[in-house]
Amino acid sequence: MGSGASKNTEEEEEDDCSNGGGGGQLYVSLKMENSKVQGELTPHIYGSVPVIGSWDPSKALPLLRESASISELSFVVPPDHETLDFKFLLKPKNGNTPCIVEEGENRLLTGGSLQSGDARVALFKLEGDVVLEFRVFINADRVSPFDLAASWRAYRENFQPSTVRGIPDVSINPDSTAVENCPSESLELDLEHYEVPAPAPSAHSYLVYAADNAENPRSLSASGSFVNDSTPRAALNSPKDSGVSSDGSPSAKEMKVIVPDSLDAYSVSGVLSPFQQKDGQRGLFVDRGVGSPRLAKSVSASSFSVDLKLDAQSKNSMPAAAGAVAAAAVADQMLGPKEDRHLAIVLVGLPARGKTFTAAKLTRYLRWLGHDTKHFNVGKYRRLKHGVNPAADFFRADNPEGIAARTEVAALAMEDMIGWMQDGGQIGIFDATNSTRDRRNMLMKMAEGKCKIIFLETLCNDERIIERNIRLKIQQSPDYAEETDFEAGVRDFRGRLANYEKVYEPVEEGSYIKMIDMVSGNGGQIQVNNISGYLPGRIVFFLVNTHLTPRPILLTRHGESMDNVRGRTGGDSVISESGKIYAKKLANFVEKRLKNEKAASIWTSTLQRTILTAGSIVGFPKVQWRALDEINSGVCDGMTYEEIKKNMPEEYESRRKDKLRYRYPRGESYLDVIQRLEPVIIELERQRAPVVVIAHQAVLRALYAYFADRPLKEIPQIEMPLHTIIEIQMGVSGVQEKRYKLMD
């Protein structure tokens, strides 16, 4: 089989290439037999590409001993291969003795057949005119790419058994005899000297104030209805001019929004597509892979269909996801009421209780699972409509102008969210205090028949945490960007908070989730009422496991493996010499970086290249996760991308067109990987101590996309270099990133 060299081959980016030829390959077996051969002479072969590529006897390939008298060399070539030019030779075990080349002309192999004269015998002249005769056998069989990959895996398993079998799933210091570091394997400099620039933050990075990452008001495009007036006093409009009627509900005139035109047509390739049949029944195409073309047929349909159009309602509830998420979408679409196809999570709580942080974190999680989710922050609407830095009196309950202005922007944000849902969105996170029953009743009335509302109330009784949040608010909020006196800002915010506390009414209506003292990381409780369905259940489970305890998460690929060197996908090979050096450098790094973190842990996959990379790290528990195994490349496991392109051009082209949804035959897609990584994400969120994750390129791309809030479509292209550590710092201020490159 052909070989290549690559540092980045487990799931690497491919250049656009034309398709190669199809068909199988020729599996050629060359055998030599001589029952009298001396043990000190071993048969070899040398010659032209692609068998050897060199006529230098020192680079000749040995024939492997099949039995006491037979040696064999096997290789794979295309059926229309160029003529192969080669000869046999005998190599003495004593390297100082010259090699013995067979007599006669070079052998020529064409189409799996030898073309030379007496092709069945190889003659070697020894000292004293002694002639040694070998019988030569050749067999060429055409094999499919599937059989080829299977035979390669079987060969690798038999030739080089795993060196880590039998290691328990959870262990601590399994190797007490750590290899001593040599100078090339130690970190001579401080850690900051190995730091390299991280990629530019995404549009939803937590390096800025979380509310600023919320959606921009669509109402800005409505003519004359939404103007950014930077004058704080602009907020003090009368009810007549506020767009809010005397009963507190928004007027129809001011609630106008502009939405895009009709939906574009959808193709079923790689999506979950309900479609209308002429008799009114629905057929369902439920397949997340886009490998080979697949068709769906309704019970009453007379012909297959592959080019379908989705109506707005069908599109809205279909996430770009796999597994349970896709199945839940089908159930909601087929069985659930219309409004259940869209979900609004409405935050409730006093200021400085972590609402915006919770909203941003939940948005990130749901997007990563494949749900079309957006975060609507009413404070952002207020700042754009009425300016920044309003006085605390603006939030008084006895200020009718302030009440009208705040009700107006809340209604605008809600209308924007509902309009976005009707245009294809699935889950809206509505971020505001929503501290009175009147405000919540207004939102429920606006959502009636359009989306399902679940209130998410955050309650905190820990004065220490509230004080910390207030000070973070003054540091980060645009409301106080122009405030030069920090303590004056704190006093103003306390006045705003006191105004809200006077009229605050806890949630007791509808469906709700109450998070009580959950942000402290020291327990707390969560209460739910009238919550049912797959997605609300996943949201509750996620919220139960989140907290704000600062801790680093270190992500790194395993050290370079032998399959990386050969350019082969998947497999379970050991690490190369460079990989072994990185393993020791990584152990050195972990020792320095986590020297005061006694509760840290090391997570690996069950494949030996990650376990061997973690082998030099001592002092921390090591946990093996099957969920961290590399993407399953199915029948393509063990092949190079060039071999896939040549032998399976349709699969190669399908993968090139859509790496996110492409599923290897009998293997996985990136969406499948995301689904199996969800328990890993939940456990990483639950951990309160540092974690080092040693895994694989496709897996780390998916994990990194979660923390960096990268769109699903970008995951297959995320750079994840070898021998580099990505440190994700999680805490109350969000997620920040550092990168360390320990070696090239």
Automatic annotation (TrEMBL):
Domain CBM20: 20-126
Segments of this protein annotated with the region Disordered: 1-24, 220-253
Keyword ATP-binding set for record: yes
Superkingdom of this protein's organism: Eukaryota
GO molecular function: ATP binding
Gene3D superfamilies: Immunoglobulins (2.60.40.10), P-loop containing nucleotide triphosphate hydrolases (3.40.50.300), Phosphoglycerate mutase-like (3.40.50.1240)
CDD domains: HP_PGM_like (cd07067)
Pfam families, A to Z: 6PF2K, His_Phos_1
SMART domains linked: CBM_2, PGAM
Record key words, sorted: ATP-binding, Nucleotide-binding
Annotated Polar residues bias: 220-231, 239-249
PANTHER family associated with the record: 6-PHOSPHOFRUCTO 2-KINASE_FRUCTOSE 2,6-BISPHOSPHATASE LONG FORM, 6-PHOSPHOFRUCTO-2-KINASE/FRUCTOSE-2,6-BISPHOSPHATASE
Protein name, per record: CBM20 domain-containing protein
Organism from which the protein derives: Eruca vesicaria subsp. sativa (Garden rocket)
Upper classification of the organism: Eukaryota, Viridiplantae, Streptophyta, Embryophyta, Tracheophyta
